[in-house]
Structures are given as structure tokens and as C-alpha cells.
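## tool: complex_structure
## caller: assistant
## args:
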Amino acid sequence: MVYIPHTDAERQEMLAAIGVNNLDALFQDIPEKFRYPQLDLPAPLSEMEILQELQFLAALNVNANVVPTFLGAGAYRHWVPSVVDYVISRGEFYTAYTPYQAEVSQGTLQAIFEYESMICDLTGMDVANASHYDGATATAEAVIQAYNVFRKKRAKVVIAPTVHPHYRQVVHTYTQGMGLDIVGGDDPMMPLEQLIALVDENTACLILQTPDFLGRLVNLEGIAEQVHARGKGTLLAVVVNPISLGLLKPPGAYGADIVLGEGQPLGLGLNFGGPYLGFYATRDEYVRQMAGRLVGKTVDVEGKDGYVMTLTTREQHIRRDKATSNICSNEGLMALAATVYMAALGKHGLRKIAELNYHKAHYAADVIDKIPGFSVVKTHPFFNEFMVRCPAQVADINHFLLNDIEEVEIVGGYDLGRDYPGLQRHMLVAVTEVNSRHEIDLFAEALGAFTAEEQEA
Amino acid sequence: MSEPLIYELSAPGREGVKPPQLDVPESPLPTAMLREELPLPEVSEVDVVRHYLRLSQLNYAIDKGMYPLGSCTMKFNPKVNEVAARLGGFTGAHPWLDPEAVQGALYIMYSVQEYLKEIGGFAAVSLQPAAGAHGELTGVLIMRKYHLDRGDTARDTILVPDSAHGTNPASSSMSGLRVVEIPSDARGNIDLKALRAQVCERVVGLMFTNPNTLGLFEEHTEEVADIIHSCGGLVYGDGANLNALAGIMRPGDAGIDVMHFNLHKTFSTPHGGGGPGSGPVGVAAHLADYLPAPIVALDPDSSPEEDPYFIFYDPPKSIGRVRAFWGQFGIIVRAYTYMRMLGKEGLRQAAEHAVLNANYLLSRIKGVYPLPYDRICKHEFVVEGRFKDAPDIHALDIAKRLIDYGVHPPTNYFPLIVPEALMIEPTETESKQSLDNYADILLKIAAEARENPHLLHEAPHNAPVRRLDEVRAARNPVLRYAH
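## result:
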């Protein structure tokens, strides 16, 4: 039996101690007609066999660890220092539960405290929670926080159409029972001023993203003041790429009330979309309306420093139907990975990574802009992702890049036409520190080959 | 000696791991947008390794010993799962790749959907929810939308037993619904009379945990489902306790309309110190169209002679998506590995031995720890952590004293309907020796409660820290490092 240590003799002894003759006797309270269904499941495999099968299945996927990849749009290929996986592979961390027994969970608790501190430092905010499931659910929780800050009296929420489409969809899903009016439309070229003009005194929050889903950096200096004034206190929530904050001004410095985003770039793999990490920070005055687990510092009976989960009266296990959210867990191990990533790179390393992203993306934009048929949209500054106008459907170009070039596969950028009808033939290209100059040149050359082939045809 | 914060190990100018060199020309930076300082630690890689290794050693974990938290199913986390999830073709699969480039990943997701359908007795499964509570929210939103789409718009109430997990009422109110609590009867079941009294055309559904949080099989499972269905309501199954039933009974056969699974409980994926979990949702046929979009499906256009080809499919009446991308894929790979290794027989054996272990441990401490509901339990049981002849002793004292003996305490003060509750779930992966050791410790502590109560009141004595001042933490919150 797999993972069951009992010997026959022990099993008999245990049954006797309970006072029954066999295992079936333990299930007599289950109606007979439901008991022991015939399940259509495969036969057991050994560890060796399952790994052989999994190796085969893994090899069916295009692996960004090997294949030059220019795809981002909310999930990014970054270099993950070895120390990250070393730490999160420690059984003491990954086989522990939620730190309810603080005395034997100080490792997890202190690591979360460090995580909260680093997220505050990165975002320029006062307080960060122990994380949400991902950037999308963190965005939904920002809406709910704002709704609660105004005691459920403000029913309007403005979301920029350039917030990640999945995040906007999740906000709609989460709030469908709340009767909110969610506005902002889906025209990605809508000027920021028009969006701000939608804010009124019934607006709980405005959600913006920078770099936005099209890769554009939005200068938000002075925006918070405008939003606060127009909406008489309307909260400004900003969705950010955490790596960009190695270089760029944190939203806390220009007055954001909530800063959140997808933490996957901070040392997590692509993992086909999960598990990821929703980081979330806000201002001190809103801490009691914030959802999610929080760890605070305290002392034990001997005065020694220690860490506990705190302000738990916001949470479901205490407040049940009056809780700020139903969230019961966090992305503990992913938050630990991000903590180790930020510690290992540190103040200087994260800045360098951000610069590498910036310079390489700009180099790629310059090179691609010179390819006949392709032009880079240059209306805004960008960080590590930019829009390219293409001579054909993006899906066709990507198919060519992946399948039709001799001796190499390339994963092209994201097809913005999927989300924005006005952006057919617009590719969102992501470039990180992982993309070497050689890869970038190869990519540009391949785009050139596509144009050449089109012309021949 | 406390472990300092990583910030306190910092020295100005010290560099950590070395990023790669720039191999392209520099471009001008957007000077107006640059940050002035980034106050992260300045530590070396050696500092990082030692600091987090030392922190890890302050934790208790399944890999150290028995961790019988009730309702948490802290079973062994197989090491092969970790190897599987770290294969390059999985960690390096970009979520936006075209389905043709990720058929291996989609095969695994499709298989897990199919296995969960089979194990749960459901018509369809979505792997999107990221945790149990997330699955609950998904399920409640599905029930809500099902009624609304049928023009049944007066339903606004969710019935929740008083023994339910706190997430049940929280997920319901988050969905904009009213919560009405249903009491338990003298045998620990849902009180049928009270349930009947609440049943009306306002009922969206019932949140039903079976076995319930007392570790008891609900003896009137069918009646409960019938009562709810008779008023047009739906039954939500909280799958947190599925480890008692997998391979033994399919909740879908017994009238559960929608249920979440906890891959991090029943299917052995690690708890990670509080996540990531994974909370897939299974539904009966009438709710299949409401699942979060998308789910993985076989391409209807692919010919039967060829290998199966998998695509994403959007259920037509979907509540929407509940997260970005497709699900906790890395966790799903682990659960797939586990399910394939157990197979059909292993799944049933796991449930049988989980129940055997709980009943055996109960038999060892029965009579010493008060047992409010004396029945054959399922995968867990609840005793009272109090003694008539030691009135100053509380469940918390017993829990903290367990730490002194090098084991992890059970869940305490839950479920709320048992005073001084100790909720114990050993799981099937504990040996008889391990259970005997735990029982011996519990019996010893019961004796100490009378003879040396201060040992309990002051416990733990030999943990990394003593009892912590939670009141102070909440009154004067210190939630970050102060530079």
C-alpha cells in the first residue's frame, strides 16, 4: 500500500482496540447503496513509472527554460537564483501548516513578517498582507476593501481598460452579488483624464495599472490628489509589476491608497499559470478593512521577540459571515520564494535586474522597429514590454516563429487582438534579463523572415 | 537567541547573488519616473541561506512528526510530487502558449478533472479555484446564478450548520447572501427539525460538510439533501473532509450538487506554511454550464484515430473566471502524481486507514478526555480539552503542553459547538507507533493536569519561544520592519 505504514498484525491489533472485526465495520453508518462505488480509475503506478510518464508529458510542452520566449502579458520568464528553490524545498517550510501554533511556527511567521516588510519597501506603502492567490484576486480584494472603507455605501468602481483583462474579469466575478456598478469600458486608448472624469462622490475606488497591460508606463504623479478630490476620498489602487519597482518610483510615493500586483516575477516559475502570488499593500488607516492574513511582532512571556498572526478579528475563522473576506490561506510558500528572491538580490540586485529588463526591452524595440512590416508603438515610455504593429495576424506570426524556422523554435509575443478588437495585428512583446542579445537578434531576424515569406507568397 | 530579521543582517554596499551582465547598449532611463531609494536588505547569498535555514529550524512540520490538525488532513507529502512539479516542461510552460504547445499540461489537467469527477460523482469539474475557500466562493456563486438564470430571483439565503468551517458563512456573505445558522442535534448531526423550519423559497442552498467537523458521518445525509431539494434549494458539499470518503462513497451520489475538493488535503499536496492550496469544484449535470471559464476539454473536432487533442472550453452560463489563468497547475501536477500512484485501490485504502487511525487514537484516550459524541468517527474526532477535577486547565494549555513533547497540537477551539474542543485528525500516513506515542503523551498530560497544572499553564517550556502576547500584537500592531 502506498504511503500507509500499517502491517497486517498492527491493523488487527488496532481493530481489536476499537472493538470491531474489520475495516468495513467502520463504515456501517454510510448507507449501503452508496458504499464502495466501482470507480473507473487507472491501476496504481510505481514512482519510477509515474516519473517516466511525467517526463514524457512535460516534454510535450514548449519549455521557456529552453526556448527563446518573448511572451509576457502577466506571466514572465525571469532568472530564479538557486537559493530560492533551496529554501522553499526545506521540508520545515513546505510541509508546515498555517502558523496557528505560533510557538512552533516562528520560521514561517518571521518569514511572512519579512515578506510584509519587503512588499512595503518595494511599493512605498505602510502595511502589506501575507498575500492573496494571485494578482487577479488581489485586484478583486482591493475593490472589496474600498467598498468596505465606505461602509458599502459607494457602489461605483472605475477600472482602467488597460488593467489585465483577467483581473477585470475576476473583479466582475467576485462582485456579482454585491450590486456594484463597474465602469471604465474596454477602449485601451481612452486617455487617463477621461477615466478620472468617471470618478464621482459615489465611487469607492479607481484602479489603474502601470506598466499597463499594453506595456506602457503611465505617469501617475499628482493623480491620487485629483482622484481624492474629485471623489471626496475615492481610493486609488495601482496594479504594478514588482520588478519594475526596482527602478521606478513606487506608487506609495505618489499617493496610492492600495498597491497590488502579480508576484510571479519575484522568483516564481511560469508553472503554466500557477501557483502564483498576489501581493497587496495599503495605508495604515485602512488596515482593518484589508483582507488576508497579517503577521505582527510581539514578545513572549519572558520578553523575547516573537511573531504572531494578528488583527484576526477581520478574518473568517473569528468573524464568520462578518469577515472582510472569506480568504483562509495565503500563498505562503510563494511569498517565501519572493522573500528569498528579494533578499538574495537585495537593494542593488533588484535594481540591476530592473535595468537589464529596461535596456534589453529597448534594444529589442529598436531592432524590431527596423524590420520591414513591423513598427513599435512609441507613444509612451515602457519598461520590459511593448506593442508592435504587425503585417499579419499575430497568431499566424507566432505559428511561424514556433514551427516554421529551421533549427529553432521561438515563442512570440501576446496577441492583443484577443482582448481589444481595435488592436488586431498588435503584438505585445516581453523582454527580460533572460533574453540574451543573441535571442533578441534571432527573434528580429525571424520576424524579417516572416515578412520576406509573406511577400513571396 | 532570537534569529535577527534579514534586514538586521544587512551591511551597506554588500551585494547578494550576481545578476547577469548587460549585453546590449544602454537606453536613456525615464528620469522623472525613477525611484530615489530601494530600502531592501543588503546581504550575501551565504547570509540568505543561513538565515532562512535557521528560520526553517524554528518550524514544526510533517517531515518532523505527527501533525494531527483536525480538518486540515496533514498527511505525508510524497517527495516524488516535488520532483514531478519541478520538471522543466512544467515550470517553464507559459500560461499564454497556444494549446498546441502545452498538450502535456492540458493532458494532466484533463485527467485530474476526469478523476475528480469519478471520485466525487460529478458531471463536470473546474480546476480554477486556488484554495478551499476560493472553491466555496465559486460554488456559492454557481448556486446563486443557477437560481437567477431560472428566474428564481427571491432566493437570498444560505443555510449553514453551526459546526461549519468559518469560510462557509464568509463565502456566502461575500456572494451577497444572507446566512442562517442551523443547530446540530444530540448525536452531532444537522438537526432535521430545525432544518425543516428554515426551508422555504428564499433558500439558495445548504453548506453541508460530510463527515462534519465533529468527524461524524451525517446519519441523515439523504434526508438532508431531500429537504433542501424539496424547496428548490441546492446542496453545497464542503470537501474538506473528503479524506474519509474517497473511494468509499461519492458525494455526488448522495445528492450533493456542488462541492470543492482540497488537493492540499485529500490529495497530498503540501500546505506550504499556509498555501498554495488548490480547490477544484465539481458539479452535478444541471450546474455544469455555470463552472468558471475555461475548463479543459477534448477537442470535438479531433478524430478518434489520432492522439487526443485538448482545448480550453468556456461553459455557456459561466459565473466568470475566479483567478488569472487556469488553476494552481504546479499543485495539480502533484495531485495527479499522487492519484496515479494510489490508483483505485490505494484511494480507498487511504480513506480506510485514515478512519482506522482516528478511531484507534480515540480508543486510546477515550474515558480520559471527555467525548461529547460517542460514535464511530470518520477521519477525525473531537474531544473536550477539560477535566472536571482540574477546572483551571483549558484546551489551550493541553495544546501548548503537547509542544513540549515534540509533537504538534490538534486544532483547538473548533468546532465552536464543543466546549474546549480538541479536534484530532491523524491521517492514514501515521504508523501505530506514532499514534501510540501521541496517545501516551495525551494521557501523560491528562495526569499532569491534576498533579502539576503549572506545567500546562506555563507551557511550552522548550519551544523556540514561550507563549506570545497576542493582545499586545493586536493593540499596538507592528506589521513591518522599521528602518
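## assistant note: Chain A has a mean pLDDT of 96. The longest strand of chain A covers residues 203-210. Handing back to user.
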